[in-house]
Amino acid sequence: MTVTIVNLKVNGVDQAFMARPGTTLLLALREQLGLTGAKRGCAQGACGSCTVLLDGAPVVSCLVPATTVDGADIATVEGLADGQQLSDVQQAFLDGFATQCGFCTPGMLMSAEALLARNPDPTADEVNEAISGNVCRCTGYAPIVSAILDAAERRRNRVEATH
Amino acid sequence: MTLLRGRGYASVNYPTGMNLGGDPSQAIIHATTMGGFVVTLSSVDLGQGLKTVVAQCAAETLGIPMENVIIDTADTDTGPHCMGTFASRGTHRVGNAVIMAAREAREVMLQVAADELEVDAGDLETDGTGFVRLKGSPATKIHISDIALAAHFKQGKSISGRGIFLKERSYPVPETGEMDPDSCQAHACTVAEVEVDDETGIVTVLRMYNTYEIGRALNPAMVAQQVEGGAWMGVSHAIFESTEPYYPASRAHGPIDFCEYLMPGPAEIPVQTSVILERPASNGPFGAKGIGEMTANAPIPAIANAIFDACGVRLTTMPFTPESVLRGLDALRAA
Ligand code: FES
Ligand code: FES
């Protein structure tokens, strides 16, 4: 088996690791880089708990072979907060009680960040669509959807305030 | 094609805990040198918020800020015994044990403070911000971190407390079948509104109104979340998910993963309105009863009743699939 060296920028930091063919991006993040925020719920692309951003787009990292994304820019939940300062989406989840067990939360946050990056003022339907690949077994989704709408508003207000 | 609307309700009485052969939970509390209070438990928080609720119980009883409480549920092998977090027993059993342990630890904490301040422990009170102070003379005070330091390095005292809540076993009286299986009962009622498509048989749950009487709601936001998250699970059982007909006889057939095992997504949830009624239970921690499992129960029969109200089809097997609705409508037409 050929082992390949994969170079990635993860949360702004250059990382290099060795990967066998078939190593998923999720496995590399968790086992080799120690970033256990992304969760392995199903390992078949159906639950969304492993969602990370690959060059800004949300992907289920359990289905991405690590060797195919050499040179990519990866964002994981670990990179969202700025020190102790949570991102707007994280803070809105916290304030809105949008998590219970928390297993889905890292994936939900990344799907939400990706949505708000491309659509700062989404409708509830657009939020539903953006998180439709993320399974949550605890919350009933409603608090998650309102937290994402709330985060969108916080972000818009912030942008206005800086203009 | 007609969309038929219907409304149905169901209610549930639900036991808090069970008695097994006796149902105990233990808690041990001790102060660190820095004035943190570690609550050691074997009770597992699986997302329902147990750690938060018992931290509230400990902080309230000790009279200190919640930030000074550290909940340690590290190891069920070595921790004080807990039967487990099931049967909606966690808040009730563990909460009671934590309060008992916190009372004992509080007494030592006040005694150590009294010796430092050279006053009588009976004249001391906590101010909730981290200080122990003399009643009527708030300037005479000492911070819990100084109390903890003095206890460890000056007085040689362990600020600690032991707590256990035991629901004693109770066998049925053979003649009457009478027994005392639980500690208290919570009550709830759900009204569901559905829409049934008489051509496709698809049932949509539009709205749910939930009312819960759960003793004291120790953390109202988490209670609301438990109610609505549980109701979602009820909707899911009612019209989506099933491991039947093969489980548990065979796992070789039927849904084995999230691709086949259907659950409602964010676009398929009803609008919910929830009301919490508080009637404190005499034996609950600050009056709380359990609210866990029961939240998924009432929605299912409420939805079944709403389907009946909408189209006259009485379904008794979950999930209420389009096929079962259509077969029911056919049977009504044939009759
Ligand atoms: S673990 Fe990747 S989608 Fe479930
Ligand atoms: S919070 Fe438990 S799965 Fe979403």
Structure description:
The complex is a heterodimer of chains A (163) and B (335). Helices cover 35% and strands 15% of the residues of chain A. Chain A has 163 residues and is an alpha+beta fold. In chain A, helix 2 packs across helix 5. Chain B has 335 residues and is of the alpha+beta class. Chain B has helices spanning 50-62, 90-117, 144-155, 220-239, 299-311, 322-334; strands at residues 3-15, 23-31, 37-40, 69-72, 124-126, 131-134, 137-143, 160-167, 185-197, 203-213, 271-277. Chain B starts with a strand and ends with a helix. The model of chain B has no long low-confidence stretch (mean pLDDT 93). Classes of the chains: A alpha+beta (163), B alpha+beta (335). At the A-B interface, helix 4 and helix 5 of A face helix 4 of B. One FE2/S2 (inorganic) cluster (FES) is lined by residues 99-104, 136-139 of chain A.
Explain the layout of strands and helices.
The complex is a heterodimer of chains A (163) and B (335).
Chain A: E1 4-10, E2 13-19, H1 25-32, E3 51-54, E4 57-60, E5 73-75, H2 88-95, H3 105-118, H4 124-130, H5 142-161
Helix pairs in contact in A: 2-5
Chain B: E1 3-15, E2 23-31, E3 37-40, H1 50-62, E4 69-72, H2 90-117, E5 124-126, E6 131-134, E7 137-143, H3 144-155, E8 160-167, E9 185-197, E10 203-213, H4 220-239, E11 271-277, H5 299-311, H6 322-334
Parallel strand pairs in B: 3-4, 10-11
Antiparallel strand pairs in B: 1-9, 2-3, 2-8, 5-6, 6-7, 9-10
Helix pairs in contact in B: 1-2, 2-3, 4-5
The structure holds FE2/S2 (inorganic) cluster (2 copies).
The site of one FE2/S2 (inorganic) cluster (FES) has 12 residues of chain A, from loops.
